[in-house]
Amino acid sequence: xxxxxxxxxxxxxxxxxxxxxAEACRGPGEVGAxxxxxxxxxxxLSTWRQQQRAGALNGLSPRKRGRKLRRDPHAERIGQLERxxxxxxxxxxxxxxxxxxxxxxxxxxxxxxxNEEQN
Length: 119
Description:
The structure is a single chain. The chain is mainly α. The protein contains 4 helices and no strands. Helix 1 (12-24) crosses helix 3.
């Protein structure tokens, strides 16, 4: 059983060389022959051409996949403060429950003390 396939990674220099070689092709079928010889797809070439127009070697450099994180320090701080507010509200709710229970226990004990005094 073959190993798990690995995603191919191309250096910026390789990409630039392929784009330049494709631009140098003049005859019919030369670009296709170049792509077959290198084991590439036409989508590679079109993507690399777009990247080259975007900024030569910088545009051809490999990029990390997935969503790009844009960290806003203010948003991080706001999130941290909102979590802290939620935690403090929960503590306050628990404190109110404890206080209510203590009041009820105090009333019960006062009622028991009054009954013992009357007897």
